[in-house]
Design goal:
The protein folds into 2 domains: about 15-260, 3-Layer(aba) Sandwich (Aspartate Aminotransferase, domain 2); about 260-360, Aspartate Aminotransferase, domain 1 (Alpha-Beta Complex), CATH 3.90.1150.10. The strands form 4 sheets. A 7-stranded mixed beta sheet has the order 2-10-9-8-5-3-4. With about 375 residues, it is an alpha/beta fold. The two termini are about 30 Å apart. Helix 1 packs across helix 6 (about 245-260) and helix 7 runs parallel beside helix 9 (about 345-360). Strand 3, helix 4 and strand 4 form a beta-alpha-beta unit. The chain is about 35% helix and about 15% strand. The protein binds pyridoxal-5'-phosphate. Pyridoxal-5'-phosphate binds next to helix 3. Pyridoxal-5'-phosphate binds near residues 10, 76, 151, 155 and 199.
């Protein structure tokens, strides 16, 4: 079989070893004669899978004991509604939410929040086409906001926070869909972290929510019970049937990351991978990336060909080299190489080798 490196932004590549283990266990999980897909979520086997998966995530991210891990559904886009429905109720209504607008995904969060609260855009990088993260000292925060929302990595723009903002006593909420487990973070600096699984964790269908316990129990009356974090936490993520198979795969990914040395080890490799990609982009005029160095995403590397009429050729020839899913998001065009945890450094090297060859051929 031809070797393929998958640069998909999401659902994204999973570690080869994990896919192989899942294949080996697909029809008969550890001698039970059952596929994980067929197991009762309340049975002994799945209960063990769930507990191990949560424990391993807690270890990987050093999640303090006063935080709950919720395994939910609906993705980050559903959380754009679920977060306000769970958090604004603590304040007199209508409450205000502060947002930092850094691109496509924070914009989605802002749009949805209008249904539940007053929205204040405390900072925005719109002046430069969302190509950077506004410095913390420029943010105009609301003193009594229900929370401050950031998207730590803008998956489409390729813009990533290089700092964790201090917002005082106001809860800090982060959409970490495309950067979770890619770098070390101090969970205690956040009130809520949420992430769809399909970038760095597992298959689509699972949403991770990490929430500080004191924030539970204030859901608005209109909040669907299945999305009330307190109910989900009280039922150990089994208020309704959780996405059992994605949870099982996420568990395999967590064990894989642990075996490789945890998040710190992933971060080291991710820094190397990103440096390779950006150093190369900076060395040529044939390809362009305009994000300032400090805010360049380690996970998503968008770039443009100077001669955009070559775009189709680039994608087609890359595919012939086993380098797939490089086309940029339709809203920005160009190319994007997503190099999440599961992308080995050899994949980035292969991409650069191809790009050099392509440049020679068409420059
Ligand atoms: C992919 C992505 C989303 C979209 O998540 P869904 O799972 O489709 O709801 C939201 N935010 C970020 C940062 C993403 O990368």
């Amino acid at each position: 079989m031809k070797h393929v490196y998958n640069f998909s932004p999401g659902p994204a590549a999973l570690p080869k070893e994990v896919i192989q283990q899942a294949a080996d266990e697909m029809t008969n999980w550890r001698g039970t004669g059952l596929s994980v897909m067929e197991m009762s979520h309340r049975g002994r086997e799945f209960t063990e899978i769930l507990a191990t998966t949560k424990r391993d995530l807690r270890t990987l991210m050093s999640i303090p004991d006063n935080y709950k891990i919720l395994l939910m559904q609906g993705g980050a886009i559903a959380e754009n509604a679920i977060v306000p429905m769970n958090l604004v109720g603590k304040k007199p209504q209508p409450a205000t939410i502060d947002f930092v607008h850094t691109g496509h995904w924070s914009e989605k969060s802002i749009e949805e929040a209008h249904k539940y609260a007053k929205v204040n855009v405390a900072a925005s990088s719109e002046d430069k086409n969302f190509s950077y993260v506004p410095a913390r000292d420029t943010w105009k925060l609301t003193p009594d906001a229900a929370y401050v929302h950031i998207c730590t990595n803008e998956t489409i723009g390729g813009v990533e926070f290089d700092f964790t903002p201090d917002v005082g006593d106001v809860p800090l909420v982060a959409d970490m869909s495309s950067s979770i487990l890619s770098r070390e973070i101090d969970v205690s600096k956040f009130a809520v972290i949420y992430a769809g699984a399909q970038k760095n964790i597992g298959p689509a269908g699972l949403t991770i929510v990490i929430v500080r316990e004191d924030l539970l129990g204030h859901a608005l009356p209109i909040c669907p019970s299945a999305f009330d974090w307190k109910l989900v936490a009280d039922h150990d993520s089994m208020f309704n049937t959780p996405p059992t198979y994605p949870i099982y795969i996420a568990g395999l990914v967590f064990q894989h990351v642990l075996r490789q040395g945890g998040v710190a080890a992933m971060e080291k490799i991710n820094i190397k991978k990103a440096a390779l990609a950006y150093d190369y982009l900076d060395s040529t005029d044939f390809y362009i990336n305009r994000v300032p160095a400090a805010n360049r995403s380690r996970m998503n590397v968008p770039f443009f060909l100077k001669d955009e009429s070559l775009n189709q050729k680039f994608v087609a020839e890359a595919e012939q080299h086993g380098l797939v899913q490089l086309k940029g998001h339709s809203s920005v065009g160009g190319m994007r190489a997503s190099i999440y945890n599961a992308m080995p450094i050899e994949g980035v090297q292969a991409l650069i080798a191809f790009m050099q060859e392509f440049e020679k051929k068409y420059a």
